[in-house]
């Protein structure tokens, strides 16, 4: 008798991948960024429509690719789709909107800060209406492990007035994405699905549903018969009520009752002492912790804790939440990163969470939840601060073998303001390098430097230039800004996985005539190409070189050659010469990324 094969387990991101396939998604766009890069790589690494590898070929796969092919093995039929990396989130959504209008289900993958970029077409698309289902997966980063900030993508659901799903397990992720496409087509609006890196690491079994079949709806031009004010009123009289009904009736919003001697689901109608409302991955954390709470229950003399786990968080199921509030004396809201749910229901006066100091803002760990449960009887005015409890980690800096390390050391000696970017250059801002002064957003360096009082420097990577920096350069050229732009051209998005970057040198030369190219890896004789005549700054150059050498001697580790930390004198001369000239100057500094090798620099 054959042994029954155990059902495979999938990570949350693998579950989303399968849900996209089963939903008949045919067009995927994404912008690299933590944590969604690994999800996009599933679409890009699996050869869709091709046969599986043989055993000998499969042995040579790395672990991530092997996992991807394991998914294929468990997928009976995979349809063709078009998946592509882009450099700008607004463009990614606009591409997807075009596909939706033409009847193709689409998926957009961005990290949380990317939501800031695509919010313009997103908000307009809601009353404009779309065609086939369109889902945006936003990767939030509680704890800012790989991001410039902590922000909560769920707020964009309220701003744009769209449905927001927040799954907490692989099976929930699968079911959520499947329903998201149906709901998107029922309401003719995009749908937002929030994920975190914790979901990527979580494994579980999923119950796959019957695959969707085409055709899917195309854009209905009848909407143009209505004026904008009529579109808005129609949305609130017809579309948004559908979303509210979905929130109240979906099985993705579930009340679970756990007692000291029993676990399971309950109606939540009986009156209890403590209820927990959670969303996303926090729902899994709550469930795991409640299983261990028998001793806690006995200590505090309330044997029951009801748990309302929300998978659809915008609109909130207000009727269901009201009944839950009425059924419990106290409510603890457990969510990452901001008090999105808590803010909307705390008017009742018996809601506890981030605002009351029981839980920290940003990432919430199991020990934080334990602290909240232990202190639920106490009023804590000051917001929780876990920085002292958290284990300190070394700040991630510039790679020790980075080709641009000598450049950053040189820049730190200049008496000018320097605007950096949210690429690798942001890592040069803290001590000991202290090279760039400010860094606000990806692609912002040029525009920020244009606001400085005198000619200064913008340090921007080639990916950031393609993302949105090119717009700042256009503005600088047309408004006569005094700025020196240093484009660090390594042809990869080094912060997000080494994706290829378009070469914009010809575009930049069409925008402004003063463009130089310097290969930082080349010999001194080959390094400079097309430079202007250098201005005599001999004394300044000598002074700066001396400062750089002093800095190198202080920072260099034992056994390293100090000469390797000094910037090529020809490049330092070029930078100083361009700084002395009025107007806009651009220097492309070519260099090989030691972490990711690409193009002609390999």
From TrEMBL:
Transmembrane segments: none annotated. Keywords: Coiled coil, Metal-binding, Oxidoreductase, Pyruvate. Residues 535-562 form a coiled coil. The keyword Coiled coil applies. GO terms for biological process: organic acid metabolic process; sulfur compound biosynthetic process. Residues 436-510 form the Thiamine pyrophosphate enzyme TPP-binding domain. It comes from the Archaea. It holds the Pfam family TPP_enzyme_C. GO terms for molecular function: 4 iron, 4 sulfur cluster binding; indolepyruvate ferredoxin oxidoreductase activity; metal ion binding; thiamine pyrophosphate binding. This is Indolepyruvate ferredoxin oxidoreductase alpha subunit.
């Amino acid at each position: 008798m054959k042994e029954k094969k155990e059902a495979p387990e999938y990570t949350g991101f693998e579950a989303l991948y399968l849900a996209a396939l089963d939903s008949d998604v045919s067009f995927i766009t994404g912008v690299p960024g933590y944590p969604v890069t690994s999800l996009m790589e599933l679409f890009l690494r699996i050869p869709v429509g091709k046969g599986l590898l043989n055993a000998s070929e499969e042995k040579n796969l790395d672990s991530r690719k092997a996992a991807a092919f394991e998914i294929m093995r468990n997928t009976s039929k995979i349809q063709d789709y078009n998946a592509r990396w882009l450099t700008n989130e607004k463009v990614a959504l606009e591409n997807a909107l075009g596909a939706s209008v033409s009847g193709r289900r689409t998926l957009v993958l961005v990290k949380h800060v990317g939501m800031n970029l695509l919010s313009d077409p997103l908000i307009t698309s809601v009353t404009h209406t779309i065609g086939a289902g369109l889902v945006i997966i936003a990767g939030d980063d509680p704890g800012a492990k790989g991001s410039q900030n902590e922000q909560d993508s769920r707020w964009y659901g309220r701003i744009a007035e769209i449905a927001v799903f927040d799954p907490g397990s692989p099976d929930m992720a699968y079911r959520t994405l499947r329903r998201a496409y149906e709901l998107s087509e029922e309401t003719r609006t995009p749908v937002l699905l929030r994920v975190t890196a914790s979901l990527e690491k979580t494994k579980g079994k999923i119950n796959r549903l019957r695959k969707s079949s085409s055709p899917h709806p195309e854009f209905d031009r009848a909407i143009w018969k209505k004026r904008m004010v009529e579109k808005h009123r129609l949305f609130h009289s017809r579309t948004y009520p559908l979303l509210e009904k979905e929130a109240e009736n979906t099985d993705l919003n579930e009340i679970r009752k756990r007692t000291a001697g029993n676990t399971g689901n309950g109606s939540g109608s009986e009156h209890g002492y403590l209820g927990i409302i959670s969303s996303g991955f926090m729902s899994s954390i709550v469930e795991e912790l409640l299983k261990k709470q028998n001793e806690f229950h006995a200590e505090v003399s309330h044997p029951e804790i009801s748990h309302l786990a929300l998978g659809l968080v915008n609109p909130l199921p207000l009727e269901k939440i009201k009944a839950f509030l009425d059924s419990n004396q106290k409510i603890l809201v457990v969510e990452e990163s901001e008090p999105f749910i808590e803010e909307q229901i705390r008017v009742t006066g018996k809601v506890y969470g981030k605002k009351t100091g029981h839980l920290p803002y940003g990432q919430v760990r199991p020990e934080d939840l334990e602290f909240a449960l232990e202190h639920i009887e106490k009023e804590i005015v000051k917001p929780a601060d876990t920085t002292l409890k958290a284990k300190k980690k070394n700040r991630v800096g510039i790679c020790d073998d980075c080709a641009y390390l000598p450049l950053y050391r040189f820049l730190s000696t200049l008496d000018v303001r320097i605007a950096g970017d949210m690429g690798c250059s942001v890592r040069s801002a803290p001590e000991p390098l202290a090279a760039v002064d400010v860094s606000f957003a990806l692609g912002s360096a040029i525009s920020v430097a244009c606001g400085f009082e005198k000619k200064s420097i913008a340090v921007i990577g080639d990916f950031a230039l393609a993302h949105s920096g090119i717009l700042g350069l256009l503005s600088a050229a047309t408004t006569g800004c005094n700025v020196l732009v240093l484009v660090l051209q390594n042809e990869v998005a080094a912060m997000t996985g080494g994706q290829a970057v378009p070469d914009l040198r010809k575009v930049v030369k069409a925008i402004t005539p003063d463009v130089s190219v310097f290969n930082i890896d080349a010999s001194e004789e080959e390094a400079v190409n097309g430079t202007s005549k250098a201005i005599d700054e001999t004394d300044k150059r000598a002074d700066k070189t001396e400062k750089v050498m002093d800095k190198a001697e202080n920072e260099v580790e034992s056994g390293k050659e100090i000469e390797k930390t000094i910037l090529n004198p020809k490049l330092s001369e070029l930078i100083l010469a361009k700084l002395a000239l009025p107007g806009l100057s651009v220097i492309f500094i070519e260099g090989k990324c030691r972490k990711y090798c690409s193009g002609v620099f390999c």
